[in-house]
Amino acid sequence: MTGIQRQIEQQMVDLDLQKESTSGVVIDVERAAPPDSPAFPKPLLNIVVALVLGLVVGCYYALLLHYLEGLGRNE
User: Of 16, 28, 49, 65, which has fewest CB within 10 angstroms of its CB?
Assistant: First the structure.
């Protein structure tokens, strides 16, 4: 017998044993309760993120305008 045939036969035996086995996993589950207050949105976090993002975008915009203005002078 080749190695593959032995593996297939072993898998078939394992499958037969699994079919005969009636032991199942039992999981006790509790009923989920919604939180008192939502996790998001957090207004302070939104304000901070908006300020930082606005500052970064504003700086890049100013640098872009300065760069484009410099291109116009060199011509």
Answer: 28
Task: Please tell me the predicted confidence (pLDDT) of residue 23.
Answer: 67
**Distances, alpha carbon 70 to alpha carbons 42, 56, 58, 60, 63, in Å:** 42, 21, 18, 15, 10
- Distance CA(69)–CA(56), nearest Å, equals 20
DSSP state, 32?
P
Tokens representing 47 are 């304000």
pTM of the model: 0.47
Domain ranges of the chain: 41-75
